[in-house]
Amino acid sequence: MKIEDLILVSVDDHVVEPPDLFDGHISARYAERAPKIVTKDDGTNAWVFEGQEATNVGLNAVAGRPPDEYGVEPTRFSEMRPGCYDIDERIRDMNANGVAASLNFPSFPQFCGQYFARAADKELALAVLRAYNDWHVDEWCGTHPGRMIPLAIPPIWDPHLMADEVRRMAAKGCHAVSFSENPEKLGLPSLHNDHWDPFWQACSETNTVVCLHIGSSSQVVVTSIEAPVDTMITLQPMNIVQAAADLVWSPVLRKFPDLTLALSEGGIGWVPYFLERVDYVYKNHRGWTHQDFGDKLPSEVFLDRVVTCFIDDGFGVENRHRLNIDMITWECDFPHSDSTWPSSPEALGKYLGGVPDQEIAKITHENALRVFSFDLHKHLPGEQATVGALRALAADVDLGYRSSARLRKEGTEAVTMLDLARQLPTSS
Amino acid sequence: MKIEDLILVSVDDHVVEPPDLFDGHISARYAERAPKIVTKDDGTNAWVFEGQEATNVGLNAVAGRPPDEYGVEPTRFSEMRPGCYDIDERIRDMNANGVAASLNFPSFPQFCGQYFARAADKELALAVLRAYNDWHVDEWCGTHPGRMIPLAIPPIWDPHLMADEVRRMAAKGCHAVSFSENPEKLGLPSLHNDHWDPFWQACSETNTVVCLHIGSSSQVVVTSIEAPVDTMITLQPMNIVQAAADLVWSPVLRKFPDLTLALSEGGIGWVPYFLERVDYVYKNHRGWTHQDFGDKLPSEVFLDRVVTCFIDDGFGVENRHRLNIDMITWECDFPHSDSTWPSSPEALGKYLGGVPDQEIAKITHENALRVFSFDLHKHLPGEQATVGALRALAADVDLGYRSSARLRKEGTEAVTMLDLARQLPTSS
């Protein structure tokens, strides 16, 4: 298969929310207290809501920035590529990268709306969260039909409200919801607790995929404050193995046989080892741990029900037959620092040699469209959805680096976790 | 290759220390205050030393016990298989499993002697630690020459004393030392700190392999106190990936080019994914993180210098050419619960089909003998070291389960981390 003939659907990109997102989506009663963008004394932008400040962290919007200007300091909208927050520009950036459709995770509300959940006034929080979801579906996804796969944020403080919101969003055509890889780390019951059953039930009934994104426990992997940041960056994706193990051994998959979950940005190359380990533990330890998977192995349950997701993972693709070829999906991660944008087709193409066309189609788009119930081709027929066709629309998109003197760093010493902590805003 | 022709050298087993270990190894001045075995009111045995009590945790000595009696409660010597603590019986148990030679990690002193390091009187601690190491080399390894590969414990509270002990042990023929996968978790400087340089230097100069065993940070992976124990058991080996990332990005490997480290019980099937990720991070982030590996990739440095170790890992063996075939080693894990004893040859044989004999030889024994500078064949010529030859010596070894009514558990509910915590002795 030629690179220009690929059809790419990314199940993991990120929206940097524009300042006007709540306009027209929140009732007058709550409008005054909805999150607002402010410009701080140093010129950086931040969301403020109920006494909480959320800055736009540098690494979360680095597409098009020279790598020596990466960092985690707060940034300004004016320093970002407009495709981070402007839907028309985003579509142009997707075209330039040959990406037909994309599922976008939130930025300032955090992966499963932790920012909203921290508000003391939960009626306000719910109004804001619903306004956010409406904006996401109606504007971010609705402006260019067929290009953005909708994803809801749930009100994690109440599983019954979560179920209601899942059903409300499904009625609007949204079949994905972002949840936490480890709610216990957020001060909530764990994945092993039946507290969440109303939520799982609603997702099950509405064919809504539960996406567990790396970092959605609000924690990063810090081996040591002295460690180079490369250590954390290396470990962060694979750390989702903890959620994978929780899922396998929890009652969730067995109690809700129609529920599908995704390990967003988790990578795939480690999964065959993990599943072999899971089955080894089952065979060797079930005598005293009392696990029971009936006539299946736990690895089989995982493979049937868990969507695996990768950005750049040649070893995983090589071993795709140790996974479920119908549940492997691809990610672009725009505009984060691990993204392959704007050369995703070339990055992916490097290790598709020898993969049959039918399997390439599953991995690049068919699986994503099926699991997220998304009808790409209604709006974008096959021949208009290819890398070649989309790139032809974007010949005028400037793909050169845009530098910002303010973000340039001095020094050549290895950057440690401590250095990073010093860049972070003190209030977050 | 036939199973009976394999030569098996295990780089990870465990000694349960016998009560008389310090006799004749510690000077009269410290003998009174050396660790002693006591029998508690409930009949279980424990070591006591300077106010600390260390019990024999059930899972650490379950070889030969029915799986429905596994658990972490304190046990008695009389409930263990004698091969756990008696060197003559251990050799018979090794013979029955066809294992020619074995490297043994400590039990009550913890993986890198944390138990000794907690003593307030550091002169006493050093005397005890040296006595332990002398016992290990002279008795545990010396009684049956050629069968036990020696492993030292270092005095982790002082890197200069560590260097001295490494040199003293090397002079006694010991070329392995157990250290921590994350000393920061023990309240000591991290692997990134030059604090440890005298230790690395001594290991480098004496060709001593530094073994980082899973759990040697004194921490287990607990996703949730509500999680089934299977979650922790699944995750514990792969958790060594954190130490692997620390090593790759720390100055250690680059500053000490002759130093070798081993990721004991870490498994191997996840390593190719990890190394691909490491190189991706290097290429994408070095512009701002300032890492420099000269004309190499970080994955190459890892593959050259880090010994990988597995118990049962068919996927890893299948992908051995993504690793360094000269640095893959095998483990039996006797008498722990993940051990394949007494059917290790059969368990390993399952996925050696299609592996060339020369590569089987490297994985099963040649690599281990080379990296640990151990001359097996001086004492046990090739034809006497095979699975078939050793098992022929052990026809009378009883391999049936030995049950203990006291350890049998009621109930069929999934066992959680909380249940496990309740089994643990309160004083540890």
Textual characterization of the structure:
The structure is a homodimer of 428-residue chains. With 428 residues, chain A is α/β, with parallel strands linked by helices. Chain A has one domain: TIM Barrel (Alpha-Beta Barrel). Chain A has 17 helices and 11 strands. A 5-stranded parallel beta sheet of chain A has the order 7-8-9-10-11. A 3-stranded parallel beta sheet of chain A has the order 1-5-6. In chain A, helix 5 runs parallel beside helix 6 and helix 8 packs across helix 11. The termini of chain A are far apart. The model of chain A has no long low-confidence stretch (mean pLDDT 95). Chains A and B meet through helix 7, helix 8, helix 10 and helix 12 of A and helix 7, helix 8, helix 10 and helix 12 of B.
List the helices and strands and how they pair.
Two copies of one chain form a homodimer.
Chain A: E1 8-14, H1 28-31, E2 36-39, E3 45-49, E4 52-55, H2 87-96, E5 99-105, H3 114-117, H4 122-140, E6 148-149, H5 159-171, E7 176-179, H6 197-206, E8 209-213, H7 229-238, H8 241-249, H9 252-255, E9 261-264, H10 271-289, H11 298-305, E10 306-310, H12 314-318, E11 328-330, H13 344-349, H14 357-371, H15 376-379, H16 387-392, H17 417-423
Helix pairs in contact in A: 5-6, 8-11
